[in-house]
């Protein structure tokens, strides 16, 4: 099952008639919106969304129509929905906002969706919110846009005006991270480190800031973490991960993932591992490299190599591999491979995914693998368990698979 993420990365106005929720402007333009805000002494709330963004749709369908959300936003803001993409179905009103949407994307650096911009009654940008959320939390985030002490753009101006203020630098780094402004976040963290000194940042309060700032091996945060690994591990003792997890993740993004994105490139993992170990001998990259192998051979559709890579990944993982990952590995084999050794390995992974409980999706995977392996009797028993544990919306699909098993029909393409 998929979880909803409240943000879509990459870039008109829709009129929405709502009885209780946010009242958005329509049949208007930016100058009129600003004039209305000025006359009513209200801030301006702009929902920058795209038609393809699931979280944007979630906000419009489930959050904006709520009465308490409408009460807060209608009392404090002139509200505007601004569509950032262009489609064939766009109305003339939507098209009339095309130029303004492009300007917003450029002038206000809108790169992720949904992005919500807040302007003061004079039409000056003072705050931004990136990503949606549930009603109460979203209202709280918007409330910050009315408070000069918490406003994003206001804080940025203070950051520029007070280069020797460590507290402002720290606040800016935190707010920039929440707004997905990586460039500003890095500048703020580097300034904070410079003003405070690395040793004074090795505490429970600042460690999360350093971790957020370690976006590359060249960042100041990465250097602090790398050079104080023992102390950092002490601070991370109760968090369930280690300094090696953090550093290897950064290096994986920099040195491994780019190669995986080159579809026609052949990767020599042994040479890659040797090079990384030579350049970064302080990090154990074994788990990262073996996980990369699974992705690589999955893309290449080399199923025997994929089987070996998954087994290596499971063996090298210091922590138990997540049931969802095990299930996904197993399902990839079921859908694509008839090799007996691959199917047997997938059965092992699938059975391991069930150790934490009888999730119907994992039960379905295990039953299908048994069936494809020729064990029809046990496959039917496990598929019946999947049906019993399934929610109503999924039960029909599991029943259809069970019916095929009983008839002796393939359950795979």
From TrEMBL:
Residues 1-17 form the signal peptide. InterPro entries: Thioredoxin-like_fold, Thioredoxin-like_sf, Thioredoxin_CS, Thioredoxin_domain, TPR-like_helical_dom_sf. Residues 5-147 form the Thioredoxin domain. Pfam families: Thioredoxin_2. It comes from the Bacteria. Keywords: Redox-active center, Signal. PANTHER family: THIOL:DISULFIDE INTERCHANGE PROTEIN DSBD. This is Thioredoxin fold domain-containing protein. It comes from Sphingobacterium oryzagri.
């Amino acid at each position: 099952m998929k979880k909803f993420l409240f943000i879509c990365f990459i870039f008109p106005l829709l009129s929405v008639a709502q009885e209780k929720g946010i009242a958005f402007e329509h049949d208007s333009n930016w100058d009129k919106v600003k004039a209305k805000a000025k006359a009513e002494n209200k801030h301006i709330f702009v929902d920058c969304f795209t038609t393809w963004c699931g979280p944007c749709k979630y906000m419009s369908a489930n959050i904006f129509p709520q009465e308490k959300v409408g009460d807060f936003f209608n009392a404090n803001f002139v509200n505007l929905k601004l569509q950032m993409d262009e489609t064939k179905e766009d109305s003339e009103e939507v098209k009339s906002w095309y130029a303004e949407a492009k300007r917003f994307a450029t002038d206000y650096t809108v790169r992720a969706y949904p992005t919500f911009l807040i302007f003061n009654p004079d039409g000056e940008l003072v705050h931004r919110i990136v990503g949606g959320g549930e009603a109460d939390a979203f209202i709280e985030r918007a409330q910050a846009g009315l408070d000069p002490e918490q406003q994003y753009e206001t804080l940025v101006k203070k950051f520029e005006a007070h280069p020797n203020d460590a507290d402002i630098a720290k606040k800016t780094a935190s707010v920039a991270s929440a707004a997905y402004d990586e460039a500003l976040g890095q500048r703020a963290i580097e300034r904070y480190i410079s003003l405070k000194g690395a040793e004074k940042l090795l505490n429970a309060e600042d460690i999360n800031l350093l971790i957020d700032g370690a976006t590359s091996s060249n960042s100041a945060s990465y250097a602090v973490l790398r050079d104080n690994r023992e102390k950092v591990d002490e601070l991370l003792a109760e968090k369930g991960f280690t300094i090696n997890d953090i550093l290897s993740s950064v290096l994986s993004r920099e040195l491994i993932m780019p190669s995986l994105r080159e579809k026609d490139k052949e990767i020599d993992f042994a040479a890659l591992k040797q090079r990384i170990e030579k350049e970064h001998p302080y990090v154990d990259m074994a788990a990262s490299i073996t996980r990369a192998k699974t992705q690589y051979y999955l893309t290449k559709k080399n199923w025997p190599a994929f089987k070996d890579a998954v087994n290596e990944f499971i063996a090298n993982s210091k922590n138990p591999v997540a049931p969802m990952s095990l299930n996904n590995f197993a399902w990839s084999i079921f859908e694509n491979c008839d090799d007996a050794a691959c199917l047997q390995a997938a059965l092992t992974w699938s059975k391991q995914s069930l150790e934490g409980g009888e999730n119907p999706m994992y039960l379905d995977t295990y039953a299908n693998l048994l069936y494809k392996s020729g064990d029809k009797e046990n496959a039917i028993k496990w598929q019946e368990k999947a049906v019993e544990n399934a929610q109503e919306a999924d039960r029909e699909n599991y029943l259809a698979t069970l019916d095929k098993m009983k008839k002796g029909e393939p359950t795979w393409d």
